[in-house]
Design goal:
Shape: globular
Number of helices: 5
Radius of gyration: 27 Å
Strand content: 25-35%
Helix content: 10-25%
Low-confidence stretches: 1-20
Structural class: alpha+beta
Strand order of the largest sheet: 1-3-8-5-6
Length: 459
């Protein structure tokens, strides 16, 4: 770590002895503007057995400020002064401060910044988990925050009273006090990702689009997420997106591209019986004022057959003595039903897509796209006929394989083999290598990435 010169630290220490310092209290967020501070401002730090000081640059000036912590007010030794290293505008220091300490800022200039001292978790933080892109249309995007509040599994029921969730799952109550999330979207050409990567800096950006809806949604077992439906975006445009938690924690960036202006498919989302379905589906455009489909306006002619399939499958599964006999040391009837639901939803709701742009790298993998089609859908005859032409990205073969592995043999779930005909109905070789019985090693290792690429439909 870089330390202040001894002569400069002694001068600062002497100055502090005769002048009052502003004190920072624990777990409080402070925002400062260099224009309103004195040269090389100093702040008193509270006493703590283990103290964490976090710094976030919000707006930069012509100078690059440096932040130094002294955790021993009784000493003028340079070994007690530590510089907080900044990375893309964010930095933190953790150490003991049994007698308190001080924070000295050099070259503050016109910089605006935030400071917080805490004894627990970081106040400012770069969240490792990324936002999740559901899908886009020509003017809309469906985006999720990183997961919060993981769902605790309920105690398994036992035979002969073993029960499974109904076909139309009732969504559990969301967390009573969730974090406050906000979404920031900007054209990638604005260079947002090359600037300061702090929540307060990103928050100064004017977000693109119009928030049509924002609520909490439980799309998978990872936990609740904040869900945004955004409209009024520009067709065929690259965007960068961040999620900000409690105004101080930053997640992102992720990147996505809106579809071309002629893209015909609307988004489908917020279905309790298919909670992970959050993408464009070949359906007629919903009646105004709705701009997408959810459980309130999805045609019953589409949802009723799916619910009947799910009900019949659950009844057949329960003919096995679930909760008493084991058909697998790793799987249960509940995990079987969950895997079957994911497969059923992925094949019942084909995912509309467009071919990659010509600017894509020729060495990148090609998505598992179907040829253009119109009219009735061969995979789901209960979808209404459409007059427009569209393409779909095939479900990942791993969705079928997961149901095959999770369910008892007597149910007869069989997936096509990669060696022969699997690629005609599934995306093969992206997550897994594509060889029978081999897990992992696929060309992309995932169904979709943070750059907006979707190679096969994972849900």
């Amino acid at each position: 770590m870089r330390t202040l010169p001894r002569s400069l630290w002694c001068l600062i220490h002497a100055t502090l002895a005769i002048s009052a310092q502003e004190s920072l209290t624990l777990n409080t967020l402070y925002s400062f503007s260099g224009a309103s501070l004195s040269s090389d401002p100093t702040f008193s730090l509270p006493q703590a057995q283990q103290l964490t000081v976090s710094v976030a640059i919000c707006l930069t000036g012509t100078t690059s400020p440096a932040f130094f912590v002294n955790n021993n007010t009784a000493s003028t030794s340079t070994t007690d002064a530590f510089e907080i290293p900044l990375h893309s505008g964010f930095g933190n220091w953790t150490g003991t401060a049994q007698q308190g300490g001080s924070l000295v800022i050099q070259n503050v200039g016109q910089t605006s910044f935030q400071v917080a001292a805490s004894t627990g978790a970081l106040v400012h933080e770069l969240i490792p988990a990324l936002p999740f892109l559901g899908d886009t249309t020509n003017t809309q995007a469906l985006i999720f925050s990183p997961p919060i509040s993981p769902i605790e599994p309920s105690p398994p029921s036992t035979y002969p009273n073993y029960t499974l969730p109904p076909a139309n799952i009732s969504t559990p109550s969301p967390p009573s006090s969730p974090p406050a999330f906000s979404l920031v979207i900007a054209p990638t050409s604005s260079g947002l990702a090359s600037g300061m990567q702090t929540a307060c800096s990103i928050n100064f950006t004017s977000s693109s689009g119009l928030v049509v809806n924002n609520d909490l949604w439980l799309r998978d077992n990872h936990g609740w997420r904040s869900q945004w439906l955004i409209d009024n975006l520009t067709p065929s445009t690259n965007y960068t997106a961040y999620v900000i938690q409690d105004q101080v924690k930053l997640s992102g960036p992720i990147y996505f591209t809106t579809k071309s202006s002629s893209f015909p498919c609307p988004l489908v989302h917020s279905l309790p019986f298919c909670p992970s379905t959050s993408y464009a589906v070949p359906l007629p455009f919903p009646q105004s004022p709705a701009s997408s489909y959810d459980s309130s306006n999805l045609p019953q002619s589409v949802s009723d057959p799916l619910l009947q399939y799910m009900t019949n499958f659950t009844a057949m599964l329960l003919t096995f003595p679930c909760g008493r006999d084991l058909y697998s040391p790793l799987q249960t009837c509940e995990s079987c039903q969950e895997a079957y639901r994911a497969w059923l939803c992925s094949v019942s709701f084909p995912r509309c897509a467009e071919p990659p742009s010509s600017s894509s790298s020729p060495s990148s993998s090609t998505p598992a796209l179907t040829p253009p089609q119109s009219g009735s859908n061969a995979r789901n005859p209960f979808l209404p006929n459409v007059s427009f032409s569209y393409q779909t990205v095939l479900p990942c073969l791993e969705v079928c394989s997961a149901a095959d592995r999770a369910c008892p043999n007597f149910l007869g779930i069989k997936c096509p083999t990669p060696r022969f005909n699997a690629a005609s109905s599934y995306g093969v070789g992206f997550i897994d290598e594509g060889k029978q019985g081999v897990l992992g090693g696929g060309s992309t290792g995932t169904a979709q990435d943070r750059w907006g690429n979707v190679w096969c439909n994972p849900s």
